[in-house]
UniProtKB/TrEMBL annotation:
This is Subtilase family protein. GO terms for biological process: proteolysis. Residues 167-437 form the Peptidase S8/S53 domain. Gene3D superfamilies: Peptidase S8/S53 domain. Belongs to the peptidase S8 family. PANTHER family: EGF-LIKE DOMAIN-CONTAINING PROTEIN, PEPTIDASE S8. The active site is at D173, H221, S391. PROSITE patterns: SUBTILASE (PS51892), SUBTILASE_SER (PS00138). Coiled coil: none annotated. Residues 1-20 form the signal peptide. InterPro entries: Peptidase_S8/S53_dom (IPR000209), Peptidase_S8/S53_dom_sf (IPR036852), Peptidase_S8_Ser-AS (IPR023828), Peptidase_S8_subtilisin-like (IPR050131), Peptidase_S8_subtilisin-rel (IPR015500). It comes from Spirosoma endophyticum. Keywords: Hydrolase, Protease, Serine protease, Signal.
């Protein structure tokens, strides 16, 4: 059965966040909270490891660590075999093991919970609760992906011969149904570009069953993400993604329309599997925020702080200790006044969180989640155009990162992240609506060549309640960000340009204003 990419978008099942929103109460061994029901899944965090155990890594992964001067440490050692044996003897069967978090996940009855909590090697127990539902949206028949390729200057990478060749990309998602028969992805499978596939939801599924068995409409999601990273349809002569020559490792971590908090441990397991193989670039168009049937069990916005959730901790470990660049969709709750902000693990400082822009003005599209004001660092990091959620803007930037990594394989994950940020059109005047803006391939190539970038930003001082700014642009309207400080936006608006001039009206709490001319950014500081 052959599918075109256009069909994928028509069939895509999205959440109101175009991601998977999950929740998290936090029972702790020390706080006396007991399980609400039998058979609930928990994280069991352990105190230490067998110090003599060898790293659970491939030689390729070890070599890459040496190249990046990243030392091997306890997070590379497996979970203690002694502790696993004691858990098994107690009738506790671990579902997943995390060497990074030094933890296992397991379903515990009330009796088992008490028994495990009393074990001397158990540091903490955290519930992984069930029952979140992804809602579906009817999508338009004609998806407009072409504008994003123009927006990020895809042709500049093509002219430089940068197609993600020799770069391994991991994709952690909800399913990859039809990927091997999609016109836009046939070129990948024809050259055996998909190296390995793992299903953490149903381990009994074979490689072919995962690609050809449709359980729910969410099983298309990973296929669409893969197409946005590397899609190229020779029939219609349309390129949908930048990393057309990359190799891929695919992992299914989420299941269907009814999701379970337990899928967070699947995500961590998939990350550690990819790390063991030496994969340095991972796209995860999934996010966790809320959605529990009992609202009291939801994440709170204040918990989107980069370290409360265990998956954010795991993501930070991957960034700091494993040299992995994780690219995460920021979330699609920007229009939800009761939430608005990014989801986890996009809140982790070390990940590259991707928002979404409008096609014309390049400012924030309404649904795209914003960065919490409480964070001491900028989120989202960058953004690009997507009509259908940040789930599909993140893979575009993953392809961008693959091209950068092909150009210079010796770059660390943090150096690649810096190049992407510095190549973006608002840099250095980022904000919590779209980060540093839209990455530009021409600027990234110049940075890779150590060439000096053209002066595309300037700072202007202003006073009073209105200010007339002279601008050079062919645009009749430009995007303006009114900010209460250097990064936090009060509001964005489209402002008309007349006779080469732009009239700015200062809001009551406005301290700075960013004027986005696409080819130039002007930062106005009010005195």
């Amino acid at each position: 059965m052959t599918f075109r990419l256009i069909m994928f978008f028509c069939l895509l099942s999205l959440s109101t966040q175009a991601q998977l929103n999950v929740v998290r109460p936090q029972p702790n061994v020390s706080n006396g909270i007991q399980p609400m029901q039998s058979g609930t899944k928990y994280w069991v965090l352990l105190r230490d490891k067998d110090q003599a155990s060898a790293p659970a890594l491939s030689q390729q992964s070890i070599n890459q660590r040496k190249t990046q001067n990243l030392p091997l440490d306890a997070t590379d050692q497996p979970v203690s075999a002694t502790y696993l044996k004691q858990l098994n003897e107690a009738g506790v069967k671990p579902v997943c093991q995390s060497r990074w978090l030094n933890a296992v996940s397991a379903k515990l009855t009330a009796q088992q919970y008490a028994q495990v909590a009393a074990m001397s090697f158990v540091k903490e127990i955290r519930a992984i609760d069930p029952a979140i539902v992804i809602t579906s949206l009817n999508l338009p028949v004609n998806p407009q992906l072409a504008p994003v390729m123009t927006q990020i200057q895809a042709s500049d990478f093509a002219q430089a011969g940068l197609t993600g060749r020799f770069v391994n990309i991991g994709v952690i998602d909800a399913g990859f149904f039809g990927a091997d028969s999609a016109n836009a992805l046939k070129h990948i499978f024809a050259r055996d570009g998909v190296k390995q596939i793992r299903d953490y939801v149903n381990e009994k599924k074979t490689h072919n069953n995962l690609l050809r068995t449709l359980e729910t409409m969410s099983d298309f999601h990973g296929t669409e993400v893969l197409a946005a990273i590397a899609g190229n349809d020779p029939t219609d002569h349309i390129q949908y993604g930048l990393a057309t020559d990359a190799s891929f490792y695919l992992a299914r971590s989420d299941q269907g329309n009814r999701e379970y908090r337990g899928e967070e441990d699947n995500w961590v397991a998939a990350m550690e599997w990819m790390d063991s193989l030496g994969v340095r670039l991972i796209n995860t168009s999934l996010g966790y925020a809320r959605g529990m049937s009992n609202p009291k069990d939801n994440y709170e916005p204040s918990q989107m702080d980069g370290h409360t959730s265990l998956i954010s901790r795991a993501a930070q470990i991957a960034a700091d200790k494993k040299g992995i660049l994780i690219i995460v969709s920021a979330g699609n709750e920007g229009d939800d006044r009761s939430w608005r902000i990014i989801s986890t693990p996009a809140d982790a400082e070390g990940v590259l969180a991707i928002g979404a822009t409008n096609a014309k003005l390049w400012n924030r599209i309404g649904y795209s989640s914003i960065g919490p004001e409480s964070l001491p660092y900028l989120k989202p990091n960058v953004s690009c155009f997507s009509l259908y959620g940040t789930s599909l803007s993140a893979p575009v930037i993953t392809g961008f990162a693959a091209c950068v990594m092909q150009a210079n394989p010796k770059l660390t994950n943090k150096q690649v992240m810096q190049i992407i940020e510095k190549s973006s059109h608002l840099y250095p005047y980022g904000n919590n609506f779209i980060g540093y803006g839209v990455p530009q391939a021409s600027r990234a190539i110049a940075l890779l060549r150590n060439q000096e970038l053209p002066a595309t930003n300037r700072l202007v001082k202003a006073s009073g309640k209105t200010f007339t700014l002279a601008v050079e642009t062919s645009e009749t309207s430009v995007s303006v960000f009114h900010k209460k400080d250097a990064t936090h936006v009060l509001q964005q608006e489209a402002t008309k340009v007349a006779g080469g001039k732009l009239i700015l009206h200062r809001a009551a709490d406005e301290k700075q204003t960013t004027v986005d001319l696409k080819k130039e950014v002007i930062e106005v500081v009010w005195e």
